[in-house]
Amino acid sequence: MKYTLVSVPALGQKQNTLLNITNKLKPFAEIHPFAIPDFKIGTLDALVLLSDELVRHDTAFEQSVNKTADVLSNLVRGQPDALVQDFLLVNDNRGPSLQETTQTLVQEMNSMDNLIKNKLNVYTQNRNTLQTLHRKQTGNYSVRNLNGVVKKEHCVLNSEYLTTLFVAVPKTAYKQWLNSYETLTSMIVPRSSVKVAEDNEYGLFSVTLFQRVVDEFTHKAREEKFVVRDFQFDEDALRKQQQELQETEEIEREQLTELIRLARTNFGEMFSAWAHLKAIRIFVESVLRYGLPPDFLSVTIAAEPKFEEKLDQILVDQYGHLGGVHGFDKQKQADTTEELLDHDLQTVNSATYRPYVQFHLEFDLERR
């Protein structure tokens, strides 16, 4: 979705100017008036400073809108363009002056952006926790939770000296394990290793040994690529684990619902704020370009596919006189560039320069 926002002098005849533009462009684009209120202007120096600030704000607003659209697209696979409000209607109730209106817009955008960012961070943390819990239940025996797999009869319990460890052994290393576990350290109970369970990658073996050699055994086992699991048998652990998973899933669903609601609500507001900022840019640049009192017409142009260059050439042909030598068509510009003596004017005469005020409001859904 791409709109070109254009402002041209009205010369006291806005309606005729609109008809003229519409008649010339309507075979190639959809044109609408972009009504902008008469803001309080202030001094010329203030306008110049504001013009520079608006460039930075415009970039930041675009980033915020796109980030929020990405949140919606990733969470609900939605179409954010369906949430865009009618930005062609710009109101002037945000502040009595250009500077105050701009500051209000920036504050509103920052507030919405930070709110979504914070909600997204909280949701992401909880989603990662949930994924970890699921991974522990569905991974192989080197990582998954052993509650419900290890039974009471697999363990030596309530012993002052002995304990049971559970070791994940690669299926290709069963023979190596059975031949070596008794000699990894001293104080291993002979023939105590039993295969408790297995999956496609690992077998889970128990081994009984004295508590005092647990650390040494763990270290030696790791050197042989055996994974000693950190596990203590607890008859209530499975119930606690299932309860934790259920609670985390409920929290994740609640946070997701809230995040989607906020993103949907704020996306339209953020896009509207961005359009308001574009309106301020058009007003400021039109005053700086065409002078006082403000007398210009602004329109939105949605070009039909493949007609953007054609529209651009029509506008340059129609309003090229506004920029003097800069307003000529591209061939004439090339032919007359050598006549420019002022270095600054030569700098202005670039591929992006137009003799009228022009900005783009582009929202790229294809990248999603």
Automatic annotation (TrEMBL):
GO terms for molecular function: proton-transporting ATPase activity, rotational mechanism. This is V-type proton ATPase subunit C. Residues 231-259 form a coiled coil. The keyword Iron does not apply. V-ATPase is a heteromultimeric enzyme composed of a peripheral catalytic V1 complex (components A to H) attached to an integral membrane V0 proton pore complex. Keywords: Coiled coil, Hydrogen ion transport, Ion transport, Transport. InterPro entries: ATPase_V1-cplx_csu (IPR004907), Vac_ATP_synth_c_sf (IPR036132). Signal peptide: none annotated. GO terms for cellular component: vacuolar proton-transporting V-type ATPase, V1 domain. It comes from the Eukaryota. SUPFAM superfamilies: Vacuolar ATP synthase subunit C.
